[in-house]
TrEMBL record:
Gene3D superfamilies: Oxidoreductase, molybdopterin-binding domain. This is DMSO/TMAO reductase YedYZ molybdopterin-dependent catalytic subunit. InterPro entries: OxRdtase_Mopterin-bd_dom, OxRdtase_Mopterin-bd_sf, TAT_signal. PANTHER family: BLL0505 PROTEIN, PROTEIN-METHIONINE-SULFOXIDE REDUCTASE. SUPFAM superfamilies: Oxidoreductase molybdopterin-binding domain. It comes from Phenylobacterium haematophilum. Residues 91-231 form the Oxidoreductase molybdopterin-binding domain. It comes from the Bacteria. It holds the Pfam family Oxidored_molyb.
Length: 256
């Protein structure tokens, strides 16, 4: 099982690499994907990882919510612009949606809360080897992107965050950011969460808004989201690999 998982994650990395290299016509071809999944007699679960990107992540009952949900990575960003937002109770916070969109948006927290929403109880899996179950409520990403209107040619959604995780790196590389493709952006469980376990998101968990992208590992779930940018490719963003950790060697597609 361990070998299979390792093989699969290697394959996911290869597929992600090919995607980034622009070979999407091949890797997105269902026949090619089926063929890859059938090889080595993969289990149903493994096939799902490769073929069924639209399947829902498992949801849990309220009784299963973790009493202590660990906070990880940035937990109290010191960036002055972010501190000022915290002081004002996020009254001046705006979520910018721009890039390859017809109608750029700048939404207050109240406006975001008025968007089509979803609540889900899911398990967060960090690559460092811990998991926790929490309830998340937030604006569905798909309807938000439809409101902005994606332009033809947009293929990735980039999440720019407020926190500098690596103060020693040049500015463009020290700031946290993440990216997902349109399959995950339009996945029904992909939300911009503003509530956790029924209360407004705490600073340590990414206040006022963090991404939940439930089919992927923890580092994809960008906290402190300030700006959402639709792009054609990831080359010009940060270190060019699609995320803070990806720029440091992590896989871009971190499917669970
Ligand atoms: N902006 C930002 N988002 C981030 C991180 C971070 O350091 N900064 N850490 C990531 C990692 S590795 C994990 S496991 C989760 C942790 O979320 P939590 O603090 O709510 O547990 O956030 C992810 N999103
Ligand atoms: Mo993580």
């Amino acid at each position: 099982m361990i070998d299979r998982r390792r093989w699969l994650s290697g394959m996911a990395a290869a597929a992600a690499g090919a995607l980034l290299a622009g070979c999407d016509k091949l890797t997105m071809n269902p026949v090619v994907q089926q063929g890859l999944a059938m090889a080595e007699g993969l289990t149903r679960r493994a096939q799902r990882l490769v073929v069924d990107r639209k399947a829902l992540a498992q949801e849990f009952s309220p009784a299963e919510i973790s009493p202590d949900f660990r906070a990880n990575g940035s937990t109290s960003p010191g960036d002055p612009a972010y501190r000022a937002l915290v002081e004002s109770g996020f009254a001046d916070w705006r979520l910018v949606v721009d890039g390859l969109v017809e109608r750029p948006l700048s939404l207050s927290l109240d406006e975001l809360r008025a968007q089509p929403a979803r609540t889900q109880i899911t398990r967060h899996d960090c690559v460092e080897g811990w998991s926790a179950i929490g309830q998340w409520s937030g604006a569905r990403l798909g309807p938000l992107l439809d409101r902005a209107g994606l332009k033809e040619g947009s293929r990735y959604i980039v999440f720019h965050c407020a926190d500098t995780l690596d103060p020693n790196a040049p500015a463009a590389l020290g700031r946290y950011y993440e990216s997902i493709d349109l399959i995950d952006a339009y996945h029904p469980q992909s939300i911009l969460a503003y509530d956790m376990n029924g209360a407004p998101l705490a600073v340590k968990h990414g206040a006022p808004v963090r991404l939940r992208v439930e089919r992927q590992l923890g580092y994809k779930h960008a906290k402190y989201v300030m700006r959402i940018e639709a792009v054609a490719d990831l080359a010009g963003i940060g270190g060019g690999k699609g995320g803070f950790w990806e720029d440091r060697g992590y896989e871009w597609y971190a499917g669970i």
